[in-house]
Design a protein that fits this description.
Strand content of chain B: 15-25%
Strand order of the largest sheet of chain A: 2-1-3-4-5
Radius of gyration of chain B: 49 Å
Distance between the termini of chain A: 22 Å
Number of strands of chain A: 12
Oligomer: heterodimer
Number of strands of chain B: 13
Number of helices of chain A: 9
Largest interface: A-B, 32 and 39 residues
Distance between the termini of chain B: 41 Å
Structural class of chain A: alpha/beta
Order of helices and strands of chain A: HEHEHEHEHEHEEEEHEHHEE
Order of helices and strands of chain B: HHHHHEEHEEEEHHHEHEEHEEHHHEE
Structural class of chain B: alpha+beta
Chain lengths: 271, 489
């Protein structure tokens, strides 16, 4: 079975994101009109109900004061108030969007600037140019994270027969009343953790790199190949240790579009 | 102008050059030593003068004693050897024995002289033609040296320990004359250290010690102050050399001699900091100016892909995307080298980085049966972690890419004469070493051979290594190539 083959319903994990995006609103601060239009169009066609486009920090502050947004997408170098300062003021203020997830989308992509962005209250930091796949997956991740804030941190994640304990750093397979630990290296556990936490939504390889290869603070040229090689090994490992699930469910980690990975949603799985 | 020339070390010759090369401490210590030597010299000269004076005093006293003896002898002194009888001789001998420690000018007793070393004690000897001589026999046996400057028939003799005093050698000035039939020797022990002499010695010695002490203390203080100031300047420069411009050396507080230098150093640091922050800001602007059109182009390509789905259009879109990707990469590399991160240096364990890079590529290598061997020993370099990571991943990536299936890639880190050396070797077909070491040609060669990545990556690696004071060389490993980087710090 070709692990990269498209799987019905799973490939359009991106189409499924429509449900996540439905009825959502975004505030987009971007002073390049074409880019702004492009991003807005992508978000709307992916299911967003409303995208408020502004081209200056002051306008962003004014807009955020009026109504709540589900996500803030901010450029850094903008007319008037820059994106960082705008975000700081939104976070410090009492507008309805003060704790909305914020994504910096900027030309300043160095590690120092990334840290600056995250310190100023951004939840994610993306450097231009960004493809649609990356943008949508990142926005979905932010919405997911916002939804998860209500739940206690470090709670077990259950996906069908798999139980992942972030605290204990274990992945267990619970079958026929028996619980068995899956043997994974720390890196493999981190990868599975990220994918399982996405709950069937796509995670791009760039996102995975940032979360799991943390000591590498840049993207090597062929990080995609590095990840693919790891994922192949991980698929084999999971198959060996969870062979009871049946061949049609393996590989458990599947590809979506060209740059994303999904851990199959097994919530409907029955023994 | 002439002073400037005098100061110019290059034009100095001989002793002046030698003098110019001494440190202030050496000069100050030298002066103190010369002063002490001069004092010692003057001490000796004074000592000689004082001794001469003491001898004169002793000679006068001895002559006086002699006069008294002769006066006491009276008519007996007129006896000639022909007339002296045994009885006369016995009388004279007894007389002189009685006179031996008779009163005299400024006389000390012999016992006191021997005890204290001070002079003044009288010594005598008398011999008649017949009979037993009286007095100190050594005065007859030790002729001594005639000292005409002290008077007629005056001699100076050195009498060994045990001769006059049981545990002291003494100098004696004596008058040796014959009176009638009698040979008379009358002397005085010379005061070796006259009281004034003692004081002079003490004063001069104290002055010498004081001068030496002051000289050394002044030199020590000057040296400490200078060293302190230089240390502070050095600290600021050291921090600046690893990219931290927060430190300035105090301009006036430490050493007045260095104020001008410190001011200049600080001004240079200010300018350097300004230059670097300008470079960083312009790199930010550059990134923005490049990325915005890149992002627009990429967005338009996405739209084009949707609008025209013919195979030819799809292929073109794919190719243009790849071109954009390469542009983005080139820009990322340019910005990475100029960004603020690139000048804050820290200590980095090169061996750990190498092991991490080897592990990173392991699954990729395994898929093609390639083994990555990391042979490392602890080695630290000063550098920028992300840049070194980029260089290492680039090198290991290339090595894996160009290794034959089942080949071996070897990464080593070693320390050679205190320098860290990194090598990455593969067993690929290698490459034209001459061409690859020529930065301008290597891209052309690589492009011609259809392996852009190899050619594109290496100048970046070379730039990173150069930023770290490392020299990169590529050698033929037969088979394969070995890239070697030797770090200087």
């Amino acid at each position: 079975m070709d692990p990269d083959m498209k799987i019905d319903g799973e490939e359009d994990a991106f189409i499924q994101l429509r449900q996540v995006f439905a009825g959502r609103s975004a505030l987009l601060l971007e002073d390049d009109p074409e880019l702004s239009a492009h991003v807005a169009e992508r978000l709307l066609s992916a299911g967003f109900a409303r995208v408020e486009q502004v081209d200056s920090g002051e306008a962003a502050l004014a807009a955020s004061a009026v109504e709540p947004f589900d996500v803030l997408i901010l450029d850094r170098l903008t007319r008037g108030l820059d994106g960082l300062e705008t975000l700081k003021r939104i976070r410090a203020g009492d507008s309805p969007s003060y704790d909305a997830p914020a994504l910096m989308l900027t030309a300043l992509g160095a590690e120092r600037q990334r840290v600056e962005g995250l310190m100023s209250g951004a939840d994610d930091y993306l450097s231009k140019p960004v493809g649609d796949e990356e943008l949508l997956a990142r926005v979905a991740a932010q919405l997911r994270r916002a939804a998860r804030r209500a739940r206690p941190a470090g709670a077990d994640l259950v996906n069908g027969p798999f139980r992942l304990s972030p605290g204990a750093r274990t992945l267990k397979l619970e079958l026929a009343g028996q619980s068995r630990q899956i043997d994974l290296s720390p890196l493999e556990f981190a990868i599975v953790g990220e994918l399982v936490a996405a709950r069937g939504q796509p995670v791009t390889k760039t996102m995975l790199w940032e979360k799991c290869w943390v000591e590498w603070k840049f993207l090597p040229d062929n990080f995609v190949n590095i990840i693919d090689a790891r994922i192949s090994a991980l698929r084999r490992r999971l198959k060996e240790q969870a062979s009871e699930l049946g061949d049609d469910l393996h590989p458990l980690i599947v590809s979506a579009r060209s740059q994303s990975l999904i851990f199959r949603d097994l919530s409907d799985w029955a023994e | 102008m002439t002073f400037q020339r005098w100061l110019d070390l290059a034009t100095l010759r001989g002793p002046r050059r030698w003098l110019w090369r001494r440190t202030s401490t050496q000069l100050a210590s030298g002066m103190a030593v010369v002063a002490a030597l001069a004092l010692t010299g003057s001490l000796f000269v004074t000592g000689a003068a004082v001794r001469m004076d003491q001898r004169e005093k002793a000679a006068l006293a001895a002559l006086d004693d002699y006069g008294s003896i002769v006066a006491k002898l009276g008519s007996e002194a007129d006896l000639t050897s022909d007339h002296v009888t045994e009885a006369d001789a016995a009388f004279l001998s007894a007389f002189l024995s009685a006179f031996q420690s008779g009163p005299g000018r400024d006389a000390r007793t012999l016992e006191e002289t021997c005890r204290t070393g001070r002079g003044g004690a009288g010594v005598r000897y008398i011999r008649a033609a017949v009979g037993k001589p009286a007095g100190l026999a050594a005065l007859a046996t030790q002729q001594g040296e005639r000292a005409p400057s002290l008077g007629d028939d005056v001699y100076v003799a050195q009498l060994k320990r045990g001769v006059v005093c049981p545990d002291r050698a003494v100098e004696v000035v004596m008058v040796r004359r014959s009176v009638g039939a009698l040979d008379i020797v009358v002397g005085r022990v010379v005061d070796r250290s006259g009281e004034a002499w003692g004081w002079a010695v003490a004063a001069v010695a104290a002055m010498g010690v004081l001068l030496l002490g002051i000289g050394l203390a002044a030199a020590g203080f000057a040296r400490h102050r200078l060293t302190n100031a230089v240390t502070q300047v050095n600290r600021a420069l050291d921090r600046a050399s690893v990219g931290d411009f927060s430190l300035r050396s105090p301009e006036t507080a430490v050493a007045p001699e260095l104020t001008e230098l410190t001011v200049q150093v600080n001004r240079t640091l200010d300018q350097l900091e300004e230059l670097l922050s300008w470079l960083r800001d312009s790199a930010d602007q550059l990134a923005h100016d490049f990325r915005t059109p890149l992002a627009r182009a990429s967005a338009r390509l996405d739209r084009l892909k949707e609008a025209d789905s013919s195979p030819a259009a799809r292929r073109l879109v794919r190719e243009v995307k790849a071109d954009l990707g390469q542009l983005t990469r080139a820009m990322n590399e340019a910005v990475a080298l100029r960004d603020g991160e690139a000048w804050v240096f820290e200590t980095i364990r090169l061996d750990q980085l190498a092991v991490a890079a080897a592990e990173l590529y392991e699954p990729l290598a395994e898929a093609r049966g390639i083994t990555i061997i990391a042979q490392v020993e602890p080695a630290s370099v000063l550098g920028v972690s992300t840049l070194l990571q980029r260089a290492l991943t680039n090198l290991v990536d290339n090595a894996v890419k160009y290794s034959p299936d089942g080949g071996i890639v070897t990464v080593t880190v070693a320390t050679l004469e205190g320098r860290s050396v990194l090598t990455v070797a593969d067993q690929g077909r290698g490459f034209d070493v001459g061409a690859m070491n020529d930065a301008a040609r290597q891209v052309a060669v690589a492009v011609a051979e259809g392996r852009e990545s190899h050619g594109m990556g290496l100048p970046f690696v070379r730039a990173i290594l150069r930023r770290h004071g490392a020299v990169m060389t590529i050698d033929d490993a037969a088979p394969g190539a070995v890239v070697r980087a030797e770090f200087s710090r």
